[in-house]
Predict the structure.
Amino acid sequence: MRLSTDLVAYVSDLAHLRLNMTDVERIANELGRVLDYVDVLQAVDTSAVDATWQGSRGPGGMRSDEECPSLDPLAALANAPAVQNGMFRIPRILAEGEDQ
Amino acid sequence: MMGVPDYSAKGLADAVRSGQVSAESAMIGYLERIRATEPEVHALLAQDQDLALSRAQAVDRMPLDQRSQLALAGVPLVVKDNIVTEDFPTTAGSRMLEGFRSPYTATAVERAAAQGAIVLAKSNLDEFGMGSSTEHSAFGPTKNPWDLTRVPGGSSGGSAAAVAVGMAPLALGSDTGGSIRQPAAFCGIVGLKPTYGRVSRYGLIAYASSLDQIGPLARTVEDVGLLLQVISGQDVRDATSVENPVPDYLAQLKRPLEGLRVGMPKEYFGQGIDPKVRSVVEKMLDRLAAEGVTVVEIEMPHTRYAIATYYLIAPAEASSNLSRYDGIRYGFRAPATDLDSLYRNTRAQGMGEEVQRRILLGTHVLSAGYYDQYYVKAQKVRTLIRRDFDEAFQTVDLVVTPSAPDLPFVLGSRSDDPMQMYLSDICTVTANLAGLPALSVPAGFDDGLPIGMQWIGPAWSEDLLLRAGYMVEQMVERPRWPLWRT
């Protein structure tokens, strides 16, 4: 089952990944093959089976809700591609005049 | 002198503790070994020789009463590059994190360092842990030291190759679907994926959070137990770490396992398993039977659904976890004039093909209209896979399988076929889906290539797995370690 290119374009939009048309064609085939394979699960009767959402095999501990030191702002900014006035710098999100 | 890399971690720590060997002289030997082998193997992504030497000197300068308390005194450690470290860059094998320097260090690394281990390098991996061959690293593949034309397995292929070739006696890896055990098998060493919650995931760059565990790789079962001992235990910084007490893994290690009952699931010995692999594992089981181990054939009927289940759950979790790479707070940023293009260009240019494939697959199976059909269904089949194990452990102590369905494959031979690469994980994904501990130990060699056998146990049975692995280790005739020329 090959996925439609429209569906791949929709999913890449959700995933915030820019794909060119060659990529979309390739992904449509590759994901189609994987989805064909995983269809084997549809034959399993799971009507009376609960889902397993967690990996855990034992009780996790909850720490006490106390204030403790967090990451220093300068350390948090140290890896940022662009910084301005102690903040992460990003491109404009409003057009000229919209931010008045 | 016998050559430093012939030390086990245990032997080296004993010698450094007593002052018989200086940590500095040992470190010089390992650094020389790296210089001699790294150009061919490419196991490492970052190293800091000056730092490693100064740390070794600091261990030597410690007062004897302090040094004698350190379980890993002066032992060099390689850390997979998806485990964060303040002293080294951390890339996760991705251009997305090229140059990234973490402001904190992972708990497992902190715990090892507190016991005297010295991180000397970060190791190569499939990008973000997504792969079974280390060919998906953005920084080039690692080669298998036993045959440089073949893959070392993955995703912890750099850690496994580094240990096999003697760059360090110990390494940390991570295992989401077999990423410690399969490379350990392909490189002829020992690797253990702990029970989910045994080792803190704090500082492990998340791939699929309900499956990921950090674990040890070493040349011997005893060394794997030694490192596991140090990194295990609850951590307040990881809410999924469990407060079960950590037993002394080495205390009973060498005691024979009398009356052990081992289950051999027929589903892991049939179609899709290379006859050479099957033969080596079956011969080892025959030898164990001759030593008094009871081997019984068992059925685990949902094994056939494991790869499908895994390749729905893991990409779904990955698509959520990797949404944090947006070009804003850290890592790579592509040029763009508006925010939306910045996200899309950054993620498309910063992440490799396999990572993008898994993000798209995961996004699709979580999207409206497909969520129940794929994601919920897979989580339900996961319950059935867990039940197969719970039922098996009613009648047997441990389950044995091959660690991988085939021998180390030739570089490039599977990179064009994602589905064929995914099937490489058939023997290992079930332990992750069920949250169980599993150990890969060499069972023999075929034409100079190592073959591993996998032991899977009930939750928290790492001590039993190590004892079983030790028993196998005593029976295997091992060729000389690879690339040993000096």
